[in-house]
Automatic annotation (TrEMBL):
Keywords: Amino-acid biosynthesis, Diaminopimelate biosynthesis, Lysine biosynthesis, NADP, Nucleotide-binding, Oxidoreductase
Protein name as annotated: Meso-diaminopimelate D-dehydrogenase
Domain of life assignment: Bacteria
Species of origin: Ruminiclostridium papyrosolvens DSM 2782
Keyword Oxidoreductase (UniProt): yes
Pfam families: DAPDH_C
Pathway: Amino-acid biosynthesis; L-lysine biosynthesis via DAP pathway; DL-2,6-diaminopimelate from (S)-tetrahydrodipicolinate: step 1/1
Amino-acid positions noted as binding substrate in the UniProt annotation, renumbered to this chain: 149, 174, 200, 250, 279
Length: 329
């Protein structure tokens, strides 16, 4: 079988993770990496693969089966998603939850017009966690959903802080509140506000002369990202950020606490958790599995924007359907 030919748009943390993930999948190959920066300044780990200016991506329409978009959700993907959906099958990890329906509609329009397939908002949240929330709600219609993140670095939130005026560099940790997690796990069905579930802790390097009070206020009041949480902002030096905060672990828990029965009520807890040493590398592995699926769906004439809810599970696997039902069912 021909390998799935993949292009990467944007070579940041996720872009590097996708490069590594492609090497682990025997049915995928990396054709080229596209960047807005000078291609000579971007050095890949895979020998023989080209780095190309993003404006030349269109020339690769016949050489690439699917583009994996690795830009940031705050400002890159809202532009790059619809732009590349009109030329290629795409997969991305757009994670501004509140804006997903709007983003879906824009990408869908571009992909439908071009007979292409776009799988958006893939990763672990949104992504695998969304899938588990949907699945467990379908199985236990009477019950409550709970999602906790961390402790870990949130790529989306760190990216959003780095775009605040006066910020040179930053990392954001999401921290679940232990008592809240235990209370859910024990089936107590607590009512928890956003603020009672997590803390957000930010380590920020400010540009010289920047107004730190304004930076702090801009972060704490940022809608969709920080406004609904208790947020702690620490200003640190570049050296401190590098030595103490350069790893990117993450993880979290999805719970469904539900009940069944008519005469006797029985309680059930569904718990799915992830403990990730590297958020971008794990997210990239999910993106590559969905890249394979996007190409398969497109070949079957299934066009437009899709999410994890719309992609058949078996399409994610490099194994054939026959192998899957023999080995795993
Ligand atoms: P980065 O900030 O590392 O990269 C974003 C873009 O920045 C790159 O594509 C790159 O584009 C550009 N860039 C500019 N200068 C540099 C530089 N010097 N080094 C590296 N990149 C540079 O973001 P991440 O890769 O960490 O995350 C991307 C998005 O992934 C996040 O915004 C988040 O929304 C999403 N995400 C989603 C998850 C999910 O579960 N759904 C989980 C984790 C992340 P170019 O090459 O064109 O310059």
């Amino acid at each position: 079988m021909n390998k799935v030919k993949i292009g990467i748009i944007g070579y940041g943390n996720i872009g590097k993770g996708v490069e590594a993930a492609i090497r682990q999948s025997s049915d995928t190959e990396l054709v080229a990496v596209f960047t807005r920066r000078n291609p000579e300044s971007v050095v890949l780990k895979t020998p023989g693969v080209k780095v190309v200016e993003i404006k030349d991506a269109e020339k690769y329409k016949n050489d690439i089966d699917v583009m994996i978009l690795c830009g940031g959700s705050a400002t890159d993907l809202p532009e790059q998603g619809p732009e590349f959906a009109a030329m290629f099958n795409i997969v991305d990890s757009f994670d501004t939850h509140a804006k997903i329906p709007e983003y879906f509609a824009t990408v869908n329009k571009a992909a439908m017009a071009a007979n292409k397939t776009s799988v958006i908002s893939v990763g672990w949240d949104p992504g695998l966690f969304s899938m588990i929330r949907m699945l467990s709600g379908a199985i236990l219609p009477e019950g409550n959903d709970y999602t906790f993140w961390g402790k870990g670095v949130s790529q989306g939130h760190s990216d959003a802080i780095r775009r605040v005026t006066g910020v040179k560099n930053a990392i954001q940790y999401t921290i679940p509140i232990d008592d809240a997690v235990e209370s859910v796990r024990n089936g107590k069905n607590p009512e928890l506000s956003t603020r009672q579930k997590h803390l957000r802790e930010c380590f920020v390097v400010a540009e010289e002369g920047a107004d730190k009070a304004k930076i702090e206020a801009d972060i704490k009041n940022m809608p969709n990202y920080f406004a609904d949480y208790d947020t702690i902002v620490h200003f640190v030096s570049e050296d401190e950020l590098k030595s103490n905060h350069s790893r990117m672990p993450h993880g979290g828990f999805v719970f469904r606490s539900g009940k069944t029965g008519i005469d006797t009520v029985n309680n059930h807890i569904i718990e799915f958790s992830l403990k990730l040493d590297s958020n971008p590398e794990f997210t990239a592995n999910v993106l590559v599995a969905y890249a394979r699926a996007a190409v398969r769906m497109n070949r079957e004439g299934c066009h437009g924007a899709k999410t994890v809810f719309d992609v058949p599970l078996s399409y994610l696997s490099a194994k054939s359907h026959a192998e899957l039902i023999k080995g795993l069912l």
